[in-house]
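Problem: given the chain below (123 residues), write out its structure.
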Amino acid sequence: MESPPEVDAEVDETRRIDHKQKEPASTSPFNFSAATSPGRTEIQKLFNKEFKLILKDDRVVIGTFFCTDKDANIVLGGAREYENDAEFTSRKKEPRFVGLVMVNIKNLKALFVDTKEVQTPTY
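Solution.
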């Protein structure tokens, strides 16, 4: 019977230690098994609400709140853009339809939320 090949003790020890280590925790930002935090609960209440965003350059963007991300960017769907708040208030000029938009929190001057939920169309 042949004897087993010689194994470098240092390599074998390293391999043995690696097997004892636990797998690293998930780095995914989505931890669905965790209890919902109060902040997340408050954000979820805002889904499908109409947002009015006033940007630092005085443009006004109005649309349905879809989501946000870890950097606090705001995503609106069905968004319309006005050049300024006076244009929005007077309604003399048609808004520019921009569809899906993402607004960086750094560009935000003010945010208003309509308390009514936007009815999503069924197809």
